[in-house]
Amino acid sequence: MSISDIRDGIATNLATISGLRTSAELPDNPSPPIAVVQLNNVQYDQAFQGGLVIYTFTITVIVGRVSERTAQTRLNAYASTGAGGVKAALQSDKTLGGNAFDVRLQEMTNIGAITLGEQQYLAAEFSAIVYAE
Questions:
Q1: Which end of the chain is least crowded, N or C, by CB within 10 Å?
Q2: pTM above 0.85, yes or no
Q3: Is the CB of residue 62 less than 8 Å from the CB of residue 87?
């Protein structure tokens, strides 16, 4: 398995949220709602014989332009722990298609406006921890 395989597994799980697109790179002109999956941190040799690696990914969810009325409503739905939320979708297949031992959503942070191109979008970052070989 590779980091790309793990990232693809995360994107596949997130794609189970109706209408949410995924990307491996932050686009200049996004078409929200979109989740961008980026590697943030790798911790090697976390078990005996080096059999566990812990990967931390940042999932930036861009919900819409700040001026759109529906942007906050969408963000609230993605933050929920139920159906349609990032947590439930991410953890729907904890092995990420056979590429991990486990995955869990740790937190949602950095809620607010981001500027891409000349537009401001409402976004939030979700931190996912993946346990793999």
A1: C
A2: yes
A3: no
